[in-house]
Amino acid sequence: MSRLDELKFQIKKLEYYKKHNPVNNVKRFNDDAIEAVHQYNLELKKQKREKDIKALTDDIQSETKSYLRNKGIGLPKAGSKLYVYNKEKGKLEEVR
User: What is the pTM of this model?
Assistant: First the structure.
């Protein structure tokens, strides 16, 4: 169960408690309900921020790849061999 689901469940549990125990522990209920809603909102903001950061990172990566592609520089694929020119030896050497 995700953090948001846990907080939703806690809020529903508190609403049920309030409905069936209207007089008992009203202050405790209010404090718990306020805290649960606050935590839920914080978790929503955190997930939205993480989603925005991931989208921005993906945009930057795609822009970088397209820029390099337009300049004629290709990024090597994962697992492919990468060669670097060694000036001292005057030849290409495999890096990976």
Answer: 0.46
